[in-house]
From TrEMBL:
Keywords assigned: Membrane, Transmembrane, Transmembrane helix
Entry membrane topology: Multi-pass membrane protein
Protein name: NADH-quinone oxidoreductase subunit L
GO terms of biological process kind: ATP synthesis coupled electron transport; electron transport coupled proton transport
Classification via PANTHER family: NADH-UBIQUINONE OXIDOREDUCTASE CHAIN 5 (PTHR42829:SF2)
Transmembrane segments annotated in the record for this chain: 6-24, 31-52, 87-105, 117-135, 141-159, 180-201, 213-240, 252-274, 280-301, 308-326, 332-354, 375-393, 413-434, 455-476, 503-523, 604-624
Native source species: Flavobacterium kingsejongi
Subcellular localization: Endomembrane system; Membrane
Gene Ontology CC annotation, any one: membrane
Gene3D superfamilies registered for this protein in UniProt: 1.20.5.2700
Keyword Transmembrane helix attributed: yes
Domain NADH-Ubiquinone oxidoreductase (complex I) chain 5 N-terminal: 68-118
Length: 626
């Protein structure tokens, strides 16, 4: 029974994928979208069932299907593991995934490749479920590569646009760089432990088995490189903002519930290995803090509504990595969950705005939408308050835990993370004010067609806004259900903060910081009525930020262009030379053959002469050698 349910959980999205690939074009769009959504909903319901069961029994569920490979001292089983971590991930992957699918039925209804879009979405969820549920690193790698492939297909979904195609290729290539690190890490771990099974590796660590710590550090470093690629950390973060080239539901799915959380999942899953390599942990914390700050700086001046949200994702992921690096895995998971709620709501809300404005994404051409898009505005406001870290919204609790941990472990990182949080409050309210307040700045035609989105779009927004509001309740200070729930995952006992005067002081600083950010945004964009200048008039440091510190240009200069130059050299000179040499050999052989053919004239006397000549030559050679 359990095995069948586990298989249905995994395969339901794949069945939805097959349906839309083979039958999607033959049935009407409503049925295509309904089947795609139902497939994910089935996985969600089964995940919920197992989650309730685990809460009662406290026993993880393991399903081993077959022995995948068997070597002398090494074997891999194809199986699934449903424990606290994987079930938590499954709930928000399939739950938010269902809402995004539902939203997409209306949002993508006019698209000519509607069925293909749902097929890709279903396949994306299938691979994400595989990644999360696998019982060993090899199955995780299958899901890891699968979501990379699907992100390429979905980001470049509107492939007629070359810019979108380039964004898809960029995401694909940058992820492959990280994947190479991940793969090397898997090889090293396989060599160290003779297994890739999580439970076997964890048991070896707990038993105190002798481990070469240098190789283990190399392995965790390689795994972290893989996480940098999937979860968009310095230096592999530039693909994620470009990923918004895909349809908005794709942005919501990638940024909130699936792909970018994979790196955090992997490190949390292997926490017992990272605990043994404190230097790598320190590096993770530093990279996370720097990523959160750099991305926050860039988000300050962006004018594309989705670009602001994209950089805010990179910044929030940086905070999660900061928590991971400080060994606070459960706090990183907490922020993953709350972030999934409010970021999905924000992206889908931006999609609702873009839908109402006929694909307008520049906030300079928006304004005044709160009057005509009340549901979108209210849900967007709730999620903006959540990401800004104001109580009692969910983001306050998870972000405050990260800041508090940083304060206790490393004051410099705490200052960096606090600055990033203040900037988050500023740029998110800047976005809110420019989009929903003051007067509408778009065209008269756009103004005439302004309207609230249909129920299939607003319903997911409402659900997500409720979760963004109350989601923090799963881990309140001094009363954390989440910490107790995740405790069996960790080998090293976790230290939890208590509500004392210092904790209240840190909370106060965080809230005041957020209010300062919101206040500056209010003065600039409501009181003064500022609107960002046209691109051509942006100067100074703002121009540097607007151009994202020119990181893409630097990558172009030191990596892309040299590769193109080498490729051009190979294509224009080396390849023709090699081709000429190979073809020359062929022509020479052909010429010898043609000449040789002339002596095949049928004269027996001539053949005998050649035969005697040959034998004489051999005898003469043997005589000379001796």
């Amino acid at each position: 029974m359990e095995t069948n349910l586990v298989l249905l959980l995994v395969l339901a999205p794949f069945i939805g994928f097959l349906f839309n690939v083979f039958l999607g074009k033959k049935v009407n769009r409503s049925l295509s979208g309904a089947v795609g959504t139902l497939a994910i909903a089935v996985s969600f319901v089964i995940s919920l069932y197992f989650f309730i069961q685990l809460n009662q029994t406290k026993q993880p569920i393991t399903v081993n299907l077959f022995e995948w490979m068997q070597l002398v001292n090494f074997n891999v089983t194809f199986g699934f593991l449903l424990d606290q971590l994987s079930l938590l991930w499954l709930l928000f992957v399939t739950g938010i995934g269902t809402l995004i699918h539902m939203y997409s039925i209306s949002y993508m209804h006019e698209d000519s490749n509607f069925h293909k879009f749902f097929a890709y979405l279903n396949l994306f969820i299938f691979f994400m479920i595989t990644l999360v549920m696998g019982s060993n690193l090899l199955i995780m790698f299958i899901g890891w590569e699968g979501v990379g492939l699907c992100s390429y297909l979905l980001i470049g979904f509107w492939y007629q646009n070359q810019k979108f195609n380039d964004a898809a290729k960029k995401a694909f290539i940058m992820n492959r760089i990280g994947d190479l690190g991940f793969l090397i890490g898997i090889f090293i771990i396989g060599s160290l432990f003779n297994s890739l099974d999580y439970n076997v590796i964890k048991a070896a660590v707990i038993s105190g088995a002798a481990i070469d710590m240098h190789w283990l550090a190399a392995a965790t470093l390689c795994l972290f490189i893989g996480a940098c690629g999937k979860s968009a950390q310095i230096p592999l973060y530039t693909w994620l903002p470009d990923a918004m080239a895909g349809p908005t539901p794709v942005s919501a799915l990638i940024h909130a519930a699936t792909m970018v959380t994979a790196g955090i999942f992997m490190i949390t899953r292997l926490n017992f290995l990272f605990d043994l390599t404190p230097n790598v942990q320190q590096l993770i914390a530093v990279i996370g803090a720097l990523t959160s700050l750099v991305a926050a700086f860039i988000a300050l001046v962006q004018t594309d509504i989705k670009k602001v949200l994209a950089y805010s994702t990179v910044s929030q992921l940086g905070l999660m990595f900061l928590a991971l690096g400080l060994g606070a895995y459960e706090i990183a998971v907490f922020h993953v969950i709350t972030h999934a709620f409010f970021k999905a709501c924000l992206f889908l809300g931006s999609g609702s705005v873009i839908h109402a404005l006929h694909n307008e994404q520049d906030m300079r051409n928006m304004g005044g939408l709160k009057k005509v898009m009340k549901v979108t505005f209210i849900t967007f406001l709730i999620s903006t308050l959540a990401i800004s870290g104001l109580p009692p919204f969910s983001g306050f609790f998870s972000k405050d835990e990260i800041l508090m941990t940083a304060f206790h472990e490393n004051k410099v990182l705490w200052v960096i993370a606090s600055l990033a949080s203040i900037m988050t409050a500023f740029y998110m309210f800047r976005l809110l004010y420019l989009t929903f307040f003051k007067e509408f700045r778009g065209t008269e035609e756009q103004k005439h067609h302004l309207h609230e989105s249909p129920a299939l779009i607003t319903f997911p927004l409402i659900v997500l806004a409720i979760l963004a509001l109350f989601g923090g309740m799963i881990s309140l200070p001094n009363n954390s259900w989440l910490n107790d729930y995740l405790a069996p995952l960790f080998v090293t006992p976790r230290l939890h903060h208590h509500l004392d005067s210092q904790a209240y002081m840190l909370m106060g600083i965080a809230v005041v910081g957020a209010l300062i950010g919101i206040g500056i945004a209010y003065v600039n964009y409501i009181k003064k009525g500022m609107v960002p200048e046209p691109d051509s008039k942006i100067t100074g440091f703002s121009k540097v930020l607007y151009n994202k510190f020119y990181v893409d240009e630097i990558y172009d200069a030191i990596i892309v262009k040299p590769i193109y130059a080498v490729s051009g050299l190979l294509k224009n000179y080396v390849e023709p030379a090699l081709s000429g040499f190979i073809f020359g050999l062929g022509k020479l052989t052909n010429g010898i053959g043609t000449q040789g053919k002339a002596i095949q004239n049928g004269s027996v006397g001539f053949y005998l002469f050649v035969f005697v000549l040959g034998v004489s030559s051999i005898i003469a050679y043997l005589f000379l050698v001796q």
